[in-house]
Specification:
Strand content: 15-25%
Family: Belongs to the ABC transporter superfamily.
Strand order of the largest sheet: 6-7-8-3-9-10
Keywords: ATP-binding, Cell membrane, Membrane, Nucleotide-binding, Repeat, Sugar transport, Translocase, Transport
Subcellular location: Cell membrane
CATH superfamily of the largest domain: P-loop containing nucleotide triphosphate hydrolases
CATH class of the largest domain: Alpha Beta
Radius of gyration: 24 Å
GO molecular function: ATP binding; ATP hydrolysis activity
CATH architecture of the largest domain: 3-Layer(aba) Sandwich
Largest sheet: 6 strands, mixed
Protein name: Putative nucleoside ABC transporter, ATP-binding protein component
Number of strands: 22
Structural class: alpha/beta
Helix content: 25-40%
Shape: globular
CATH topology of the largest domain: Rossmann fold
Bound molecules: adenosine-5'-triphosphate
Length: 534
């Protein structure tokens, strides 16, 4: 018997952005009915390759073959027609449309016509049941938890009859139980004969769910191996070219005086919705307080209010001195002058000015520092020189200070923000999702830097959706859900399961299926949101 044609075959794909060769002569075969992982360092070229497959970019050279046929993919419509669906890291859903409207949007001639709505509702219901992707079709996207939004993205692809699904870092926004559930769904899809490409930095996920894994390095496809015949250590080495410490090496904390004291902090967003409902916490010198939680439960607002970018009420003291809680404006600057550094969760909108160069971004927010002034002008030569040093130390690739922020890969953008904030040697570091989208080699380095700051007696408030990161870095862990701290634990007295439940607002371990307890809690929250929005 002859083997079936690959679901996807790429032959000799190359793509350059100016001097950067993002993809070099890449060939890969993905067999139907398999889950194929793609891993690689930041900037290795994974997103570029997937963007070519999905019709966002045109390759400079090479061919795409789908199910044995040479296929041109000039745009994403052509990709959809070829049966390819993509679940993006940043969901592309219309927030004030319902689930149903989002699913059919653009999929049908005539858009949102009434007759097609009824039919579509039926199809959606069937798909949701078949693949355990239950969501309320009439709910507005803006009321949905991120995990449920992701289900909508998958449903949208399935509705368009995608046979090939590309998922880009899908578990970054999920609790462990939700991630397990997603993997069950992917497994079911595989059993149905669908083909899945999974891009992830998490080797645990690669080992758990994929059949085959390809490794990219500096624009090239360097290895493709069967998952059953490899190990996380080997993959890490293939990816980074050296051995990587897969655990954080750290001594017990020796906490000193209280640096940050937050008392009954509240925040109401511009829609009048209360996002922080009375948060109290303390962080001491030489200590890392980890805030675990699923995105959208008040952690971002906590960082923004503490960082001086959003209004709030309550009391915040820095070494016993109250700091003003104000709105946007120069307040962030006053905080920076008092040695508070802030790595915001969303590097694209808050951490960087995308059109500015890397060197300009390395002083963004700190440019008033007299050191950077030269008479009435900025001392650009000095800033550029320092930027080059920071970029080298944080291994930003390419190490080109003159490149605009938007032209770096996601992980490298993150390194630029971290280089700026950590290199200030702040007394208090507020850090959101420090390793989001960052490869394991860089994670190792960033974690070491955070621990180094702690050991130098600094206070660190770490917000992360990654439980591995929270558990391995934190000296104490607070879990947030729906604007409140649900509980505080020490890392050695808890585990992923307990934290995962708290993250979904479940305070007692359920007897039966954890996923249904989580779904119930999330749906109750979604209903509350919907009521608030009238
Ligand atoms: N539009 C663009 N203009 C210029 N350079 C780009 C552009 N898009 C990507 N690059 C460069 O191409 C290379 C590959 O980037 P790509 O985003 O594909 O990497 P990646 O493997 O997906 O990385 P990450 O894991 O950080 O998301 C990087 O060096 C990046 O700086």
């Amino acid at each position: 018997m002859t083997d079936p044609a690959p679901a996807i075959e790429l032959k000799g794909i190359s793509k350059a952005f100016g001097p950067v060769q993002a993809n070099k002569d890449i060939s890969i075969r993905v067999m139907p009915g398999t889950i194929h992982g793609i891993i690689g360092e930041n900037g290795a070229g994974k997103s570029t390759l997937m963007s070519i497959l999905y019709g966002f970019y045109r390759a400079d050279a090479g061919e795409v073959w789908i199910n044995g046929n040479k296929t041109e993919i000039p745009d994403s419509q052509a990709a959809i027609k070829a049966g390819i669906g993509m679940v993006f890291q940043h969901f592309k859903l219309v927030q004030n449309f319902t689930v149903l409207e989002n699913v059919i949007l653009g999929a049908e001639e005539g858009g949102l016509l009434k007759p097609s709505l009824a039919k579509a509702r039926g199809v959606l219901k069937h798909l949701a049941e078949e693949y355990e992707l239950s969501v309320d079709p009439e709910q507005l996207i803006e009321n949905l938890s991120v995990g449920h939004q992701q289900r909508v993205e998958i449903l949208k692809a399935l509705y368009r009859q995608a046979d090939i699904l590309i998922l880009d870092e899908p578990t970054g926004v999920l609790t462990p139980a939700e991630a397990d559930h997603l993997f069950r769904i992917l497994d079911n899809l595989r059993k149905e004969g669908k083909t899945i490409i999974l891009i992830t930095h998490k080797l645990r996920e690669i080992m758990e769910i994929t059949d085959t894994v390809s490794v990219m390095r500096r624009g090239e496809m360097t290895a493709t191996v069967k998952t059953a015949e490899t190990s996380p250590e080997q993959l890490a080495e293939l990816m980074v070219g050296r051995k990587v410490l897969l655990r954080v090496d750290k001594k017990p904390a020796a906490p000193g005086e209280t640096v940050l004291d937050v008392d009954n902090l509240r925040h109401v967003d511009r829609h009048g919705v209360e996002r922080l409902k009375g948060v109290s916490l303390q962080v001491r010198a030489g200590e890392i307080l980890g805030i675990a939680g699923v995105a959208g439960n008040g952690q971002s607002e906590l960082l923004e209010v503490l960082g001086g970018y959003a209004e709030g009420t309550g009391a915040v003291r820095l070494r016993g001195q109250e700091i003003a809680l104000a709105g946007r404006g120069s307040d962030g600057q006053a905080r920076r002058a008092r040695s508070i550094a802030h790595v915001p969760e969303d590097r694209q909108t808050e951490g960087l000015i995308m059109s500015y160069t890397a060197w300009e971004n390395t002083v963004f927010g700190y440019h008033h520092d007299p050191r950077y002034q030269s008479g009435p002008l900025m001392n650009n030569a000095l800033i550029r020189e320092e930027a080059a040093g920071k970029m080298e130390r944080f291994d930003v690739r390419p190490p080109d200070p003159d490149l605009a922020a938007r032209n770096f890969s996601g992980g490298n953008q993150q390194k630029i923000v971290l280089a700026r904030e950590i290199d200030r040697d702040p007394d208090l570091l507020l850090v959101g999702q420090p390793t989001r989208g960052v490869d394991i080699g860089a994670i190792e380095f960033i974690h070491q830097e955070i621990v180094r700051l702690r050991d130098a007696g600094k206070a660190i408030l770490l917000v992360s959706v990654e439980l591995d990161e929270i558990l391995s870095l934190s000296d104490r862990i607070a879990v947030m859900f729906d604007g409140r701290v649900m509980g505080e634990r020490r890392p050695d007295e808890t585990d992923q399961t307990e934290l995962g439940l708290l993250m979904a607002g479940v305070t007692e371990r359920p007897e039966g299926d954890a996923m249904s307890a989580i779904d119930r809690s999330l749906e109750a929250k979604e209903t509350r949101e919907a009521e608030r929005h009238g």
